[in-house]
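tokens incoming
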């Protein structure tokens, strides 16, 4: 219990203001027990936990350990020290709560609950004898703002677009015909195979007809095949010459040879041709149709 220093009224422990006169009550500082140095560390004064030297607070209860360490008693060597029994601190006794018939009154200033009959609030010290505070005056109602009046919008006359001015299309530009460059006369080349010969390995000369294209092969009446150059008299069948083996023709003034997909193949200057491959022929070239060797001469 705490006695008021003004009116000597008795107040509950922990009250900040006197219940009778409203005077602020003095606060009683709790005595701080410094920790005690023991063997192996520092003993907490609250829970008696042995803390490591140098720690600022107890690891178990959080009590400050840097208040001042009491001198450590002499540590006996034989038995380990027995920690003294801790008596629980006496708890303050409070009167039994009285039933409240109506709702508990509250302080008009801080709204804290107060005991009926108290003259001042325990929490803020405000007087409780003046009665309930007067209801606050009603706030004046601001007048509604006056809406400004606006003149109705004037409908603008519709804008009539001007009639489009007709512009005649420009006259088409007729391009001038390009002037053809003079064409130089083409060089006159070989026009036909007249004058060319195929020389066999035996030295026989086979004159070619005056045509721009001939077929070299073997004559066969059964299949109604009659090539321009028949190699049957020159051992063509034994040498593997086909009925339509190769084609010799003139194109753009140049004599050319084409393999007609023969079975035994065509070789020019020891270069085997693919099926339907075309090569140029020059005087002195060696032609092999299968195993039949011919030479292109003029």
């Amino acid at each position: 219990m705490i006695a008021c220093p003004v009116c000597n009224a008795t107040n509950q422990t922990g009250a900040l203001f006197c219940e009778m006169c409203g005077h602020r009550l003095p606060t009683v500082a709790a005595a701080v027990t410094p920790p005690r140095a023991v063997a192996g560390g520092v003993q907490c004064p609250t829970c008696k936990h042995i803390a490591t030297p140098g720690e600022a607070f107890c690891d178990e209860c959080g009590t400050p350990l840097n208040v001042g360490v009491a001198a450590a008693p002499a540590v006996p060597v034989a038995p380990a020290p027995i920690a003294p029994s801790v008596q629980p601190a006496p708890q303050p006794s409070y009167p039994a709560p009285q039933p409240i018939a109506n709702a508990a009154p509250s302080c008009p200033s801080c709204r804290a609950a107060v005991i009926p009959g108290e003259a001042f609030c325990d929490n803020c010290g405000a007087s409780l004898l003046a009665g309930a505070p007067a209801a606050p005056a009603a706030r004046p109602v601001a007048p509604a703002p006056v809406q400004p009046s606006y003149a109705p919008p004037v409908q603008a006359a519709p804008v009539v677009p001007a009639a489009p001015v007709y512009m005649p299309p420009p006259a088409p530009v007729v391009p001038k015909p390009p002037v053809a460059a003079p064409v130089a006369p083409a060089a006159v080349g070989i026009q036909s195979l007249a004058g060319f010969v195929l020389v066999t390995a035996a030295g026989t000369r086979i004159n070619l007809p005056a045509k721009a294209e001939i077929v070299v092969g073997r004559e066969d009446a059964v299949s109604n095949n009659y090539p321009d150059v028949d190699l049957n008299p020159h051992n063509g069948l034994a040498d593997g010459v086909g009925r339509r083996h190769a084609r010799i023709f003139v194109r753009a003034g140049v004599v050319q040879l084409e393999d007609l997909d023969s079975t035994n193949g065509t070789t020019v200057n020891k270069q085997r041709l693919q099926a339907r491959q075309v090569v140029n022929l020059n005087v002195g070239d060696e032609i092999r149709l299968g195993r039949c060797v011919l030479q292109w001469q003029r």
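note: The two ends are 149 Å apart (CA to CA).
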